[in-house]
C-alpha cells in the first residue's frame, strides 16, 4: 500500500493519471541511458572528437553511426511533444478528473510514445514512426479537447 492510502491525516488519493505521466518520465530516462550506451562507445570506436570552438554540433552528429543518431534523435523527441502530454495530464490531475476514458487515452498515448521510441531507435522505419506519431498526436488532441470542454463548459467528469 502507498502512504496516501494508509496515512490517517491524508484523505487525498493520488490521481491515477499521474501513473502514465511518471511512466513516460521513466521511459525518457531509459532512452537517455540508451543514448549514452550507444553514443559513448561510438565516439571511442570511431575516435570522434567534438570541439565546439572548431565545429558545429552538426559536424559531430554527421560522424555518428545512424543507430547512435536514431537513439539521440528519439531522446530529443521525448523532450518535445510529450511536454504537451504532461501539461494535459497534470491539468487532469489538478481538476481531479478520474474519468476512465481520459485515463485510457493517457495510457494509450504513453504506450504509443514507447512504441515510437522503439521503432525509431531500432529499425527507424519512417512511415511506421509517422503512423504511430499521428495516432498518438490524435489521442493527445482528443484528450486536450475533452479537458477544454470540462474547463470551459463544466460537466465535471461526465465528458
UniProtKB/TrEMBL annotation:
Signal peptide (UniProt feature, chain positions): none
Keywords carried by this UniProt record: Membrane, Transmembrane, Transmembrane helix
Top-level division of the source organism's lineage: Eukaryota
Record's subcellular location: Membrane
GO cellular component, one term: membrane
InterPro entries from the UniProt entry: MAPEG-like_dom_sf (IPR023352), Membr-assoc_MAPEG (IPR001129)
Ranges in coiled-coil conformation: none
This protein's record includes keyword Nucleotide-binding: no
Membrane-traversing stretches: 20-37, 131-153
Protein name, per record: MAPEG family protein
Species this chain originates from: Didymodactylos carnosus
Amino acid at each position: 500500500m502507498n502512504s496516501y492510502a494508509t496515512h490517517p491525516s491524508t484523505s487525498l488519493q493520488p490521481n491515477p493519471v499521474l501513473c502514465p505521466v511518471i511512466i513516460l518520465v521513466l521511459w525518457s530516462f531509459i532512452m537517455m541511458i540508451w543514448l549514452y550506451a550507444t553514443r559513448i562507445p561510438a565516439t571511442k570506436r570511431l575516435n570522434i572528437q567534438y570541439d565546439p570552438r572548431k565545429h558545429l554540433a552538426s559536424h559531430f552528429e554527421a560522424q555518428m553511426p545512424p543507430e547512435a543518431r536514431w537513439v539521440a534523435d528519439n531522446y530529443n523527441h521525448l523532450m518535445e511533444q510529450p511536454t504537451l502530454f504532461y501539461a494535459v495530464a497534470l491539468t487532469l490531475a489538478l481538476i481531479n478528473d478520474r474519468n476512465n476514458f481520459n485515463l485510457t487515452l493517457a495510457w494509450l498515448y504513453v504506450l504509443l510514445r514507447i512504441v515510437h521510441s522503439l521503432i525509431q531507435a531500432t529499425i527507424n522505419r519512417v512511415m511506421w514512426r509517422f503512423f504511430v506519431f499521428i495516432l498518438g498526436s490524435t489521442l493527445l488532441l482528443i484528450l486536450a479537447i475533452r479537458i477544454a470542454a470540462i474547463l470551459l463548459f463544466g460537466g465535471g467528469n461526465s465528458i
